[in-house]
Design a protein that fits this description.
Residues 1-17 have a biased composition (Basic residues). This protein is mainly alpha-helical. It is built from six helices and two strands, in the order H-H-H-H-H-E-E-H.
């Protein structure tokens, strides 16, 4: 038998809507670090404007938290400071001879060349 010249239909796949990715839970340390950053921003103009912090500013953070009656773990405090100090606005302010500030706004030293080179090494993308 002879077949006709009728073309076979092209198979089409059903278009499915893309499945949304499951929401990944935010670790508590991340959520708490964001909350801590908000607390520090509310209390310190230096924190809000990303001015270079004095060496040992972590003690000031712990003192502020103690005075406020707020408790955060060491991990949260360090994560918050790490985010803050690696922010591009903060890094841009770290130039040799720039003033370092306490959280209350007082000048407390200046940025040294070794600190700038160390910060550049730590914030350098790999």
């Amino acid at each position: 038998m002879k077949r006709g010249n009728k073309q076979r239909p092209i198979l089409r796949l059903k278009k499915q809507k893309p499945m949304p990715l499951p929401a990944t839970p935010v670790p508590p340390s991340v959520a708490n670090a964001k909350a801590l950053s908000a607390i520090l921003a509310a209390h310190s103009e230096v924190w809000r404007t990303y001015l270079p912090l004095r060496v040992g500013a972590i003690e000031e953070v712990y003192t502020l938290l103690r005075n406020e009656g707020v408790i955060y773990s060491k991990r949260v405090v360090h994560k918050c400071l790490q985010w803050h100090c690696r922010n591009p606005r903060y890094v841009a302010g770290l130039v040799v001879g720039a003033s370092r500030y306490a959280l209350d706004g007082g000048i407390n030293g200046e940025v040294l060349p070794i600190e700038v080179s160390e910060n550049n090494r730590l914030t350098k993308p790999e």
